[in-house]
Amino acid sequence: MGELLEREPINGEAIFGEALGAQNLSASFVDDTLVALLQSAAAGLLVSSHEAGLLSSERQNLKRVIHLVRLACVTTPAWAQGSVGALSVPRGTVWPALLGIVRRGWSHLDSESSLLVLGLVEDWARGVSRDDPYPPGADDAAAIAYTLLDSFDNYSHEDELRRAIQIIAKIPNANANRYRELLLTPRQSGRDRSRVAEKLQEVLFCGPFYESLPTARDMSSSLISGLRSHLLCSDDDLPEEFNWSSSLRVELCFGLRSSVGHHYFPESAYRTPMLSLLREHPRAAIDFLIELFNHVADWYAHPRIADPLEPAFEVTIKLPNGNTKAHWCNSRLWQLYRGTSVGPDVLQSYLMALERWLRDLAKYQPDLLDANHDRTARKLQHLIASWNLLSEVHAAKQRIVLCHYAMRVWPHHAQGALS
Hints:
The chain is mainly alpha-helical. Helix content is about 60%, strand content about 5%. It has 22 helices and four strands.
């Protein structure tokens, strides 16, 4: 049937139209006929030419075609061939054509149809990969997903809202302006609150690193700006933070917003977007980490609150180039990374991500690490990051596993970005 459509498109289109309108044929026979046509290389043109018929009769034919496409127009990705319970990814030209029809002809989505369309776009998004970050149909998929955000923006559809957000997070540049607006929306309260923006930021900032990989790749500057607003507390923010923080105020002791005390447990290198940023844009990521760690050290060493934690003292270390640097240190900071002290989970996750990236760099590109570690160490003036960097360089030179005492104490007072 697929060959017929490709060789004799007029006859193939006639059969497709008759199958959609068949009343006296068994449903299984009709479905088999439609599937054979939808799997054809010419299926995209076929469904586009029958757009009016698919949208008629309360879109019953369109719903039927969507179910068949999701079921039959898929394949197993090459990396999963032969695996038990292998994943499926979309296959064929019918997917982008079907998304275009849904976008143009299904402007109002009720509760039932919203779930059907969400499933369609979700299945299409499985085809997004590093090799093909924006498959055909990305613009239509993004437009549909943003429409679904409005449908699910209520407390009754928390799971559906998250699923729609995960779709747009895979293709951020499909609607860059809208995505950037959500990414940079500051956290508000009351009527000014944007639940969609909060949920997107929660997925990207606190979730597994792969959720933020497309954003780190395509919008690193906006992502870093969003992280800066999400994490760092300024002196002007303190009155508002005191209204929301707990009596412990551990995050405020480190110069972080009270809201980051949630969603970051358990700590992991593979939580937060930092590992993705380090892999995609290492210079920008390191610059931001220096800024973050220096901010944290300044607030810890010079408390802004009435009941600070135990004070820090200065120690001096000698860098490989012979220079010396003063760093803030105490038992809490020394033990924080290994989880034997109390501190913000987000900081521990960021440090773990930095260590993971440095391990990989020392293993796969030791010459690059060796060539740049001196100038990086001069900027990292907290012992926790500087010590980690120096340990990695030593490991690269000696071809041994990283020192277990890496990244112990926070950097302090770095002088600007890396040159």
